[in-house]
Protein 1
Amino acid sequence: SSDVCSSDLEYRNAVALNFIPRGETEPDFDPAEVEDMRKVFELRQKGKGDRAVQLLERMHAENPTPHAAVQLAFEYQLDERLRDAASLYAFAVGEYPQFLRAWQQLAAIHFQLANGASDRDAAGDEVVVEDDPVDHYAEAQRAFQQAIGLGLVNEQNYGYLGLTLLARQRYIEAETAFRSALMMSDVDKTLYKNWRQGLVQSYFKQRRYADAAAMLGTLIDETPDDPKLWLFQGNAYIGLGDAQRAAENFQIAYQLGGADAPALLTLGDIYVNDGLAEDAVDRYLAAIELDAGKSPRVLRGARSLLRLSEIDALRSEEHTSELQSRQYLVCRL
């Protein structure tokens, strides 16, 4: 975002980092390039950011080097020109394949673009790309793996690599990446919870419902008031064929105010099978109210609701008005 380096001091620190030797993961500077970079620094220090960008663009046009490309890409990132920046980072790693810093930034940009980040052109207008030909998740995966292979081994790279692999439906590799991230993560950090939830998703995608239920049990112990965790664990129990435990989870999520329409419909189905007609009706109606009849599953629940009119318990004289009322709601749907 544009506030990554909001002050001159932060910018000077970022530029200074460019001149710290990093061994084989950074190309060498030539003396003329260093002098031009100092001019860029001075222009920035004087608050002449536009002129600094113009100088970098001239440098890249006249004598394109990996360092000039990366510094210009950094400037473009500040202006949210993500695709322009990605092109420059790609040039830099093409010229010097071990350029670790460029790989890291390239991974971040592709991950952002894959997740709908806004992009701008040189005029500052938002760029809208229909049917983007670039597979940004694939490019992010490649860049994250290159950064890790070059030695930038940390929880963020492994964790975001895991999310990228999930999006690409490479679930076993995603599991490995999340496990690596968890090994490096501080248990008190928010990221630690994110990586565990990512690991749970990889279990679901592999139909490893017992592993998912166990991991979710740990998460529920830590945050028992999170209805989403109860829902996810309920779905894991459905996968295991344990309808009763699933019903318990969905009911808790319902009491916490976080049950969605699919969970309520499933809960209604379970109650129908158990002969709990009135409880089933309540859950079906709650699902219909949430979903407004837009889902085929809601319509299936409505049909089940109508079938309940045949249940003897609801056909007794004392339930006649209630039954008619519920039938009327379904007919309206």
Protein 2
Amino acid sequence: PYPTRKELYTRASNGYFRALADHPGSALAPLAAWNRAVIDEATPSRALEAARAFDDITERYEDSDLVPDALLRAGKLFGKANAWDEAAARFDKLAGLQTPHSHGIESRRLLADAHTRIAGAATNKVVAHESARRALLVLDALDDLEESQDPEDRRKRYIVRSRAHSYAGEPVQAMRCLDLAIEYSQYGEQDPELAELRALAFDRADRHSDAVRAWLLHATLVTGVARQDSYIKAASAANKGRQYVATIAIAKTASNEGFGDALAPYSDAALIALDMEPKRLDLFGDIERIERGERLERRGFTAEAVEALRPVFARQAVLEDEVRM
């Protein structure tokens, strides 16, 4: 039988490995290392291994002409693996190289983008704000260095700037950047990336109703995991805005498209907020059931209160005294 692509890649990679081990000082060694890194890059689920392989080139062959390209590829691969701190470090190093290369503009834009991704993943608001401000500073420096007139480059810069403003707590500026980006997009308002950032800006501004509509619009422009994520964010925004009926409707639509499990926690949270039984009964502890029963009774729904309290009553013998009382 013919060898599979994976087998061919493995053979080639092993061959380059042996050649590098036997002839580390060869003039062809940097190119052999490059080809081995490219094989890793083309192999599914080996983004981090490929990034480290390109890193190895920059460390072992620092005088090679391949170093700028290796830094660029390593940074992009670290980003693909969501290792944005590592990606930012490579783009920063690339931007600071004294050796002439053709990636000066791109490296700075990618560095700013990496900082916005770090801001988006940060759980600490101070870290998120600082990373976003750092991205804006890099973009300002980039615009001072070269005010590009290329439509796609302008679009990408405004996209990164919009994301940075959103995470810096400046949604109005974020919206302005999106309006400017639309002028450079061939898809206009239907540009999925711009639609996503508009939803993000509404989210960060706590404009929950607008965020729900924006995330649902984005869902119509994308497919697969991206579509599922948009439904999740729309449901989350609806719950934040106490639009629980909207959340249930979003979950229903998502379920019809095969995303029901992913939306279930948000739908159940909405049901609980509406004093309705969630689909996942484990969400209700004894205290939560008692509190729900009390709310239903105060509203005159005696029968519903009885049903809400029945599981707790049936287990009263094993309950703690405080809960039993």
Protein 3
Amino acid sequence: DLAGRAVLEAFELTDKAEIDILRTTKFLEKLKQFDLAEERLEEGLKAFTESEEIAEMKGSLLFLQEKDEDAVSWFQNVAEAAPSGQLVRIANLLIREDHAGTALELLQSRRKDLSDDFAFLEALIQLSAREDERDSIENDTLAHLTLAGSPDELDRALSIATSTFSKSEHREPLLEKLKAMSDQIPAEISLTALLLSREGETAEGITLLQDAAKSSEGADRVLFLQQQLLIFRRDKDWGNSAEVAEALFNEPGGKTSQNIKNLIGILELAGREEDALQRIEEWKTLSPGSIAPWTQEADLLYRLDRGDAAIAQLRNAASQFSA
């Protein structure tokens, strides 16, 4: 095939680095020159024995040729020593190819040596829930919470936990386990409250978070306030949402553009447009390069039947941000 030969000739002019092999293989795939693509990958695997990308591309190429059995076997071999990130990618690829059961088996086979890896546990929990394999899911979920190394990871772990235990029949055993703990860490307190709210026991969950916030400071107190806000917003309780959003804004380090924006939005939802308008100047101060506070101010003025002031504010914004 002329096109295939042209691709190979171009490859011979490269440094034959890993990226060159990957690009050449992709071109050959698009041309449906699968035999030539496989040859390049085999050469690449010999030259770059540690390349995760080449190994994954080989399995993908086998799937592309509908050689599912060979592809699954290849990925099973690769997965035996794959690092966490590659293992999760392999699992996701197998799921896309309708081999979710095999993907779960691969993850379970590596539980012992990767049980302290946040991303690995996340993939294992989500796939276990999808496949309704729940023997270890409670312990995995609690372990996942303890491994969260940042506020973003903790938010993600809590979100995954609440979705994993979205059904009451699954929530109740975990709730009992959490309630029986004599000394809960902040993440476990937060999960207990979130699950209680899902069970219709919102008042108990909020009280738990409020008590924890009163006896905490710093990141832990912020966490408990954030979970209160999450529950209040979900229940469209805008009055309490505004109170908690104000508390978050007044926490040390809490005076951020995102926090004041959230507070203004909640005040609007609570029907407190005048109060929202009064906080716009703080947003402008915290976001000096953004036109959003100015346009939001104009919108509020219009809704308060102050059209002339709204137009004047838009003109001010145009002047402020014109090139």
Protein 4
Amino acid sequence: LNGEILNYDQDEQGGVDISDVTALLKYLSGSKDAIVGVPTIVQNGLVAWYDGNDHTDTHWTDKAGDNDIEITSGAFANGALVLDGTQVKIPSDVYDAVRGSAYTIELNLGNFKMNPTTSSGYYTTWLYNSGSEKVALFIQNNNRQFSAKISGQSSGTRPSLANAEYIMQGGPLTVTYEAGGRAKMYLNGILMSDMAAAASNGNNGAAAGSFFYLGATGAKASKTEYQGLRFYNRALSAAEVANNAKIDGASAIIVRDGLVTWYDGDIYNGGEWTDLMGNNTLDTQMGTFENGAYHLAEGEAQYLPTGVIGSLQGEEFTIETNLGAF
């Protein structure tokens, strides 16, 4: 019960070692103990860890320490903290962890609904610091690009992800930073953006005692399900990021190496079929979108952009087609 053996009969013929049973029970009951042979969240450098299933009515429990988040708005539902145009404060000790020369932020989102306003100055912001903004995770509403704002990194040198609104929901997002090294972004444990990091982040430009907001109000607001959140005081390796993403339940992973164009039947904008890789949006001429698919009637044909055709002119290529009824 809760990781403790209350009673058992000794099996004189051998069988499973009782210590293994104890270890497994501790893992299943949410024990923080590292267990040999059972995948666990990386512990080295872990400063704070919030799990959407581990909370009280008034606090989001820090599974790594003493930095519980006081829930002053929003509510927990279906394994997530749901904030709708509101925000909560993360204790200042957590922000201090990213004032050093290396850190990792892991954010696990469920469903989110962006502010429909696409004018300049409107964002969907999930995390940012108090005072002058130096660290933030956000989508620009006008172009749907996700960016990790890092002090010392200009807008063109930040880790970023195109068409983020369509492919981020339900998958763990990780940002790692090491001054003078690399600033990286991963989705579902897969490297998506790798940029040179500035030689110094200037302690992220904020004084000790600053804190993070989770969620935002006004022009940065959204309705978001926060399923989990972790902070490290070092940059996790690619293998460590993949390990955590797997435990977090990474959704289906599409191979990105060499991927030129990607159309999904559920993702379109008016008469345009969105290219999730951002380069070859398709101007539909005849068909219609219905039930997660692009429909062409008998005798109708759809031209593809020249950029797609160009990717097939080398000595190697791959085409994947997912058909419904025909």
